[in-house]
Amino acid sequence: MLRQEVLEQFISVVGPDRCKTSPEDLLTYGYDACIYEYVPDAVLFPKSTQEAADIMRIASAEHVFVTPRGAGSGLVAEALAKHGGAVVCFTMMNRILEINTANRYAVVEPGVVISELQKAVDKVGLFYPPDPGSAAVATMGGAVAMNAGGMRGVKYGVTRDYLLGLEIVLPSGEVMVTGTVTAKDVTGYDLTRLICGSEGTLALVTRINVRLLPKPKTKRTLQAVYNSIDDAGTTVSRIVEAGIIPATLELMDKTVIKAVEEFSQLGLPLDAEAILLVDVDGGPESVETEAALIADFCRTQGAREVRVSLSEKENELLWSARRSAFGAVARLRPTCMIEDATVPVSYLTSAIKKVIEICGRNRVQVGVLAHAGDGNLHPLILCDQRDKAEMERVERAMDEIVDYALSVGGTLSGEHGIGIPKSKYLPKQLSETSLSMMRAIKRAFDPSGILNPGSFLEQRGS
Amino acid sequence: MIAEKLREEVYNCIRCGLCMNKCPVYNQLYFEGAAPRGKVQLIKKVLEGKLEPSENFCRMLSLCLLCETCTVNCPSGVALDRLMKAMRAEVSEKFGLPWQKRAMFHLLSSDRLLPFCLFWGRTVGNPLRSLLPADGKVGTIPYHRLPLLNRRPLLNQFPEVVPALGRRVGSVLYFTGCATNYLFENVGRSVIATLTRLGVEVIIPKAQMCCGLPIALSGARKMALKNIRRNLEIFSRDDVDAVIVDCASCGSALKKEYTHILEELGENAEAARTLGKRVLDVAEYLSRFELEKFLRPLPGRVTYHDPCHLVRSQGVREEPRSLLKRIPELEFVEMEGPDVCCGGGGTFQWEHPEVAAGITRNKIKAIADTGAQFVASGCPGCRLQIYGSLDTDAIQVLHPVELVAMALERRLS
């Protein structure tokens, strides 16, 4: 519980409407898109850097825990107040401050929804590529804190690759600027990229400068239908080997196809074992050549059918269907644990096989989804949180998937983050030296440990 | 208590949040309690006995237009609007409704009181409207942009059976709804003129009542039962081709809400299911006819606003547009976000005028950007909200069927 006089100090900064403390309001800030729940003691909605700084200054003086939050679409409880205290939610600080066409960058506040930025820059012929499945809800601040990836990672990289600079508020309440708006910048340590992916443990992000690209002239979406998931996996390896870099390269197995089709009714093939969704973009000529090449590859690798989309609208429908996958599988079972282990792409086929084998052995229902082009698996483990015995089997399966990914040189998490669910695995991937360096960095930013306590760094050992 | 089957819905919400950025209310307020996800999670807590429903909880439930945008966009297929409606019914029993709503619903569920009050409203209210303060408002709508009451209720202007003109090709029952009966008589006149001109006999049962939707959606489901039973009794006839409705909300009530309400109250819903299949929006029914040979040019530009209760509740998107597109020389221009709620939401705009005004502002801008002089929309609620928020008389808000009738009459004259 926060003391009344502390609350009053917060209210003096944001006003009573943007300081929420009713039981109903607090409950609605107790969850994100995964299964954990931690109810905060207050939710504050700053609208300016000054307000955010004032909040941190009070929190620092009064030793109040603060957990930053965007839209709450994260998957690892990073934005939950695990030890209570205040949630600082940025959804009301959501203006696009500048879109600079001459220098191709944009400056945004942290509450801007990713897809809103994408739409706004698209109108002036520019392109912000990072495209997580949750782009239509997730905020830019959240994307920075989690280094969000997404479907275009294979060609365009992730949030990290588009950050030019940030304005941040330190736990002490001091405001600091990192980076610039220039494409090149080697002045000092790269603190921009240190903050990116720090899961809200180092600072509040209050302004973001992102690099933009010219919008690709054309785009084509291919849909290759397979009777065997192995063939789909092999196709992916072959495309990558051949030096073709599609804009997106997504794999869905039949469980996911079924759920997505039930929602989107696009006529996806329900009898297929797997489909690959491939986007190629660029100049009209290279798009034609590459699309034909990929279609050929798919056929020789056993695709029973390759459809090429005919219009921008059809592209859009297919991709919004893909984006719905996480939600759509809830049609099958109430709970979905989404795994995120990532392997070097040449291991993709064997990794998919392994995942299916592990889940089968542990009697766990799984749907396979993957950002296949960059080896980022997303097995969707379908279960019911209310069934304890089942949840134990799920946990075992996830342990084994992680062990496998690490054994072939992969990583615990490609893009969702560590948070609570993966913190126990951290020592498997990071050495004690590495972890103590990270803790030292944390101490430098947040000596009294008030920002996002209970985060991934406070791992509980395996 | 909320029906067992509906209770299970809360466990299908995986909290992905895809409902949030599409929710008109969330996009005004930007906090979780305003968003569909937040409400479902709170309902879950209440159903699990972990949260006691409070006044604040009721207020959050009321912060919803019931526009169903979340329901149709939910990848997990959660019936969010049904949960919300059922929960409203639940809490309204505990906390009651504000007196204004109680008084209004009492009127709407009464045969005698409603015509009586509206008689005095017409006789005294219409002339007195000009005496009301110029800056006064009902919710977001200034007094001077409220509609006047019909001179006489539409039901009293026509005989029970209006015969087809020329050869009879069909016969329909016409559910007029309160808005057409008491406020927008020209909609009713247009429906009748168009149908009879096409050779359709129009039967207007005199004993029909308010569909009950406004009463039920505010939570007073049991109060609405009287209306539901009466209307089911009157309109369950199979000697006609269809039951025609010109109001999106009445249509959604007759097509599916009656069934949901009766099912959830544990009543026999068979008659409601049967009726539901026979109800058609007037635009749906008119799409069966070759209108072209009747329509004369109506020069101008029109845009179309999708009523929530038509496009999402009933899935009717194309028919009204195609009606308009068939009128010669009437240019059809699509606005930005035609299916985004106008912000009216029945009593929402009265309960949350500031939120509603923000939503309506976007709608008005989208309309103005088209440069159209007509906005067509088959919902009296949208009409009240849009007309009430326009600050120009250069844009007319009409029912699509009124434009059709205008094009028809040109030939006759």
Using brief descriptors, characterize the structure shown.
heterodimer; A: 462 residues; alpha+beta; Uridine Diphospho-n-acetylenolpyruvylglucosamine Reductase, domain 2; Uridine Diphospho-n-acetylenolpyruvylglucosamine Reductase, domain 3; Vanillyl-alcohol Oxidase, Chain A, domain 3; seven-stranded antiparallel sheet; 16 helices; B: 413 residues; alpha/beta; Fumarate Reductase Iron-sulfur Protein, Chain B, domain 2; Rossmann fold; four-stranded parallel sheet; 11 strands; 50% helix
Describe the model.
The complex is a heterodimer of chains A (462) and B (413). By secondary structure, chain A is α+β, with helices and mostly antiparallel strands. Chain A folds into three domains: 4-89, 2-Layer Sandwich (Uridine Diphospho-n-acetylenolpyruvylglucosamine Reductase, domain 2), CATH 3.30.43; 96-214, Uridine Diphospho-n-acetylenolpyruvylglucosamine Reductase, domain 3; 218-407, FAD-linked oxidases, C-terminal domain (Vanillyl-alcohol Oxidase, Chain A, domain 3, 3-Layer(aba) Sandwich), CATH 3.40.462. Helix content of chain A is 35%, strand content 21%. Chain A has a seven-stranded antiparallel sheet with strand order 15-12-14-13-17-18-16, sandwiched between helices. In chain A, a hairpin with a 4-residue loop joins strand 17 (365-371) and strand 18. The longest helix of chain A is centred in the last third of the chain and has 20 residues, at 388-407. The two termini of chain A are 31 Å apart. By secondary structure, chain B is an alpha/beta fold. Among the domains of chain B are: 4-95, Fumarate Reductase Iron-sulfur Protein, Chain B, domain 2; 292-412, Rossmann fold, CATH 3.40.50. Chain B is 50% helix and 9% strand. Chain B has 22 helices and eleven strands. Chain B has helices spanning 4-8, 26-29, 36-47, 55-62, 69-73, 80-95, 99-108, 113-128, 154-157, 177-183, 185-197, 213-217, 221-235, 248-264, 270-278, 282-286, 308-311, 318-325, 348-351, 353-370, 380-389, 400-412, and strands spanning 137-138, 141-142, 161-162, 170-175, 200-203, 242-245, 279-281, 300-304, 330-332, 374-376, 396-398. Chain B has a five-stranded mixed sheet with strand order 3-5-4-6-7. Chain B has a four-stranded parallel sheet with strand order 9-8-10-11, sandwiched between helices. In chain B, helix 3 (36-47) packs across helix 6 (80-95) and helix 11 (185-197) packs across helix 22. Chain B is globular. The chains are: A alpha+beta (462), B alpha/beta (413). The A-B interface holds A 20, 22-25, 27-29, 31-34, 43, 45, 71-73, 89, 91-92, 94, 111, 113, 115-116, 134, 136-138, 260, 262-263, 323-331, 334-336, 384, 386 and B 11-18, 20-22, 30-33, 38, 41-42, 45, 51, 54, 56-57, 60, 74-78.
